[in-house]
Design goal:
This protein folds into two domains: 140 residues, Up-down Bundle (Butyryl-CoA Dehydrogenase, subunit A, domain 3), CATH 1.20.140; 132 residues, Nuclear Transport Factor 2, Chain: A (Roll). The chain is globular, with a radius of gyration of 21 Å. Helices cover 47% and strands 15% of the residues. The two termini are 42 Å apart. By secondary structure, the protein is α+β, with helices and mostly antiparallel strands. Strand 3 and strand 4 form a beta hairpin. The longest helix has 20 residues.
């Protein structure tokens, strides 16, 4: 994963004239300098913070800090390194105030049957959110680099990062994902290379214990794109059509389904099937959906019928994790606010 946004990737050196204009207060020149890096900086903020909304705030704050402090950039290192220093430190400040993001599996054991009462949203909890990955496919990057960009925002990886202290999280991302050296990271984080190497070793150990050996990108590359669309569309059709047999046929025996911000989650095909039948298939009005992508994985945007509104309204972004040609995990991020980040409509007729 070390070449996702590799420090060795081509980065045009900022022209002295551009820097001079920035130092003279030219905001347009500053925007021109940072524009090629904003996409990857935003992804870095999401990996650090586990929330698109937090990433938006962090990047805005970091760029403001960079604008105000550009006089300290002397041009001896790369602009990219300097911006990552500011952005990483901004994220670490936010982490101190807000703590880590979680998923329902972090709260306790799964439920073995559909929870119909008491499964109310926990709004005081900082939940991990989905990431709109469309921008990661843009630009001149090679297919391999785009592949690794998607790998670096996969749900399992980002969820594992949330279990790391802030400094370990930053070191792992800067070294393994972004390709900075231990010496560079030590300077960025105002620490020693010994501390960087120690934090990196601990971070790698924790992440290895929590991330499956095969990434979703590795799994998806083994499956024809048309077959992936067939699996995802089959799941959405089965749920919307109330076809429990068709749904079960697509699931692994140990499938899980979680729905942040609801705390209850389900593990195993029996429990998942019971929930699917008891709640979305029989107790909810009609569904419509759009196929999309999130965290480098196939996803479905579900819309639930609202008779008062006379339309189907945004309900959840459900991210699918595949194992072979079956669905091993369903993570449904409930809330219309997620649809804005994906550029999806708030309602369907």
């Amino acid at each position: 994963m070390s070449e996702v946004f590799s420090a060795r990737s081509a980065e045009p050196a900022p022209e002295n004239a551009d820097l001079a204009r920035v130092r003279d207060g030219d905001e347009t020149a500053f925007a021109h300098l940072v524009a090629p890096l904003q996409r990857e900086l935003h992804a870095h903020c999401y990996q650090m913070l586990g929330s698109t909304h937090d990433a938006d705030d962090a990047l805005q704050d970091a760029l403001l800090r960079a604008w105000r402090g550009l006089a300290r950039f002397e041009g001896r290192g790369s602009l990219r390194s300097w911006l990552y220093t500011t952005t990483t430190r901004t994220c670490l400040d936010i982490l101190k105030a807000r703590g880590r993001r979680v998923l329902p599996v972090d709260f306790g054991p799964s439920s073995d049957h559909a929870v119909l009462d008491g499964n109310v949203p926990l709004t005081e909890v900082g939940w991990l959110g989905p990431y709109a990955d469309t921008d990661l496919m843009d630009g001149p990057a090679s297919p391999h680099a785009r592949y690794e960009r998607r790998e670096a925002v996969e749900l399992a990886f980002v969820a594992a990062l949330q279990h790391l202290p802030g400094n370990q999280r930053a070191v792992l991302l800067l070294f393994d994902v972004l390709g900075f050296s231990a010496v560079e990271i030590a300077a960025m984080m105002d620490t020693s290379t010994t501390s960087v190497n120690s934090a990196l070793a601990r971070a790698r150990k924790t992440v290895k214990e929590k991330v499956p050996p095969r990434t979703q990108q590795q799994t998806l590359r083994k499956i024809d794109d048309a077959r992936v669309r067939e699996i995802v569309g089959g799941y959405a059709d089965a749920l919307a059509g109330g076809d429990i047999d068709a749904l079960v046929a697509l699931l692994t025996e140990d499938v899980t389904w979680s729905m942040p911000p609801l705390p209850h989650w389900y593990h195993g095909i029996t429990a998942v099937a019971d929930f699917a039948w008891q709640v979305p298939m029989t107790r909810c009005p009609t569904w419509r959906y759009l196929l999309t992508s999130a965290n480098g994985q196939p996803a479905v945007a579900f819309y639930l019928r609202d008779d008062a509104a006379g339309s189907h309204v945004a309900w959840s972004i459900t991210v699918l994790t595949l194992r072979g040609e079956r669905i091993a995990e369903l993570t449904s991020f409930l809330g219309a606010e997620h649809f804005v980040c994906f550029g999806l409509p708030a309602r369907l007729s």
